[in-house]
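So, does this match?
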Amino acid sequence: MDQIQNFGKNFQASFTPFAQRTQQLVREQLGQAGERTELPASYVELEKRVDALKQAHQKMLQVTSTYTNESYDYPPNLRESMTDLGRTISEKVNLLSTANTPGEASAALTAPPQAKPQPKTLNHAIARASLASSQLLHGASSSKGPSGSGKEDPLASALEKYAIAEEKVGEARLGQDAQIQSRFLAGWSTTLNTNLMFAARARKAVDTARLSLDAAKAKASKGADAPGSPTGGAGGESGVSEQARADVEKKEDEFVAQVEEAEGVMRNVLDTPEPLRNLSELIIAQLEYHKHTVEILSELQPVVDGLQEEQESGYRKNRGSA
C-alpha cells in the first residue's frame, strides 16, 4: 500500500510541472498569458547564428551528398551489358594486343568478367565507348578485302589511347569521391546530427525552464489576486505568498542556469573549426582530382596531335600525287 502511495506521489510530482508548462504554453498560443519572460539579447543572437549554421549544413549536404552516388554523371539513357562492364580498359587492351585475327579481337572484347562490374561513371563509359569504336575502325582497316588498307587507322589508335586516359580520369574521380565522403561529408554530417543536436536540446531545456518560470509567475499572481489570499485579493507583489515567491525565485535560478548552459553549448558549436577544416578537405580533394586529370590529358594531347599531323601530312601527299 505504501508503495502505491509513493508511486502516486512521485507521479503527481513529475506530472504537475509538465501540466503547468503545457497550460502556460496553451495560454501563450491563445494570447491569454501575461507578460512573457524575455530571453537575453546575447542568447537570441546565438540562436540566430546556430539556425543559420544548421541551414548552411543542410543546403551543402543536400548537394554534396551526390558524391556518395557512383553513377551521378553516368548517362541515364545509356545501356551497357555485363560484357561491356566485365573488364577494365587496360585488361581489354592487353587482350587485344595478343589478338591476331578479328575473331580473337572480338573475343577479347567479350571476354567473361573476372571481378565485379566496372564503375558506371561518365569517364568510364566514354572509355568503353572509345575502345569499342577503336576496334570497329581497326577491324575495318585491317581487313584483307579489296577495300581494306591493312594499315593501322590513326583514328582507331587515338581512340584506344583516349580510352586508356579516360579510364584513368574516371578512377581519379572515384578517388576524389572517396576522399570527399570521408573528409567532408562525414564531418559535416557529424556536426549536423550531433553538435547541432546538442545545441537544439540545450535550447529546448531553456524553453522548458522559461515556461516553468512563467507558469510559476502566473500561479503566484493568480494566488495574490484570489479573494481568499492573505491580502484579501489586493494583488501585487506584496500579495504573493512566501511559498509562491520562493517557487518563482527557484524557477528563475533554473532558467538563468539553463540559459548560461545553452549559450556555452551554442558558442562551442559556432566556434569549432571542424566545418571549415572539412570544407578545406573538400577543396583539396577536388583540386587533386582536377590536377590529376590535367596531367593525364596533357600527356595524351601531344600523342593525338602527332597522329593527327601524320594523317594530315599523308592526306596532303595523296592529294598532291592524285
User: Anything to note?
Assistant: Confidence is low (pLDDT under 50) at residues 4-15. The two ends are 118 Å apart (CA to CA). The first helix runs from residue 2 to 29. The CA atoms of residues 221 and 240 lie 7 Å apart.
